[in-house]
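User: Can you predict the 3D structure of Cobalamin-dependent protein? Sequence below.
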Amino acid sequence: MVTSCYSGTAADCPYSSPVLLLESALIGMDRRGVQRIHADSGLSPLSFCEQVIAPALTVIGEKWDRGELSLSHVYMSGRLCEEFMEEVLGGRLESAQERRPVALAVLEDYHLLGKRLVGFVLKGAGIPYLDYGTVGVQELVRRTQRDGVGVLLISALMLPSALKVREVRDALDRLGMECRIVVGGAPFRLDPALHREVGADVSCDTASQVLPALAQLWEGES
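Assistant: Sure. Here are the predicted C-alpha cells for Cobalamin-dependent protein:
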C-alpha cells in the first residue's frame, strides 16, 4: 500500500520540492495534504496548477507507464486534483467573458492525462469549456456542430489519432463551421509542422500554452 509522507508544512520537508510533495500526497490520496501544499506554496490556483499539479501528474503518469504505479493511482490522482481545483476556484467560471463555446476532447485515445491538465489550466483561468472526453471523428464533429463550438481543443497521444484531426477539419469545413482547432500531444511536439498538415490552427507543447493560444485566436476574431 502506498501512503503519503506529507503531514506537515513545507518547513518540515526542506529538501522536498512542492512537486515531489504533491506527488506523494496524490499517490497516498491525501486530500488535506494537497490543500496544505498549495497553501504553503504561496502560489495562485492557476500558477499552482501549471507549476506543481501539471508536473506532479506527469511524473505519476510516467511511473504508471513504467509499471511502478497502478492505473487506479493515475485515476485517483487526477480526481483529487479536479476536486481541489473546483474547491479553490469556486464560482469563477461563471464570470468568464461570453464567447462561442470552447470544447476539449481526446481523439480516439484513452490516455487522458494531457486533456486533464488542459482542463485544470482552463478552470484556473476562469474559462468554461465543454468536456467531450474520448470521442471518434464523427461523434466529435456532431457535438461540435450541435454546440456551436468556436474553439476545439484536441489532444492526441498517438500518431494515427493525430492524423485523424484532418478528418475533423475537413468535416467541419464541409458543414461550413468556422471553428478553430488547437492540438496538443506527443506527435505534434515531435513534428512541429504536423498541426498544419492536419488543418489545425495552433499546436501547443504544454497545457499552459493553451491560454496564449486562445488569446491569440480570440484577438483575431475581434
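Residues 1-15, 91-96 have pLDDT under 50 and may be disordered. Residues 95-221 form a domain with the Rossmann fold fold (CATH 3.40.50.280).
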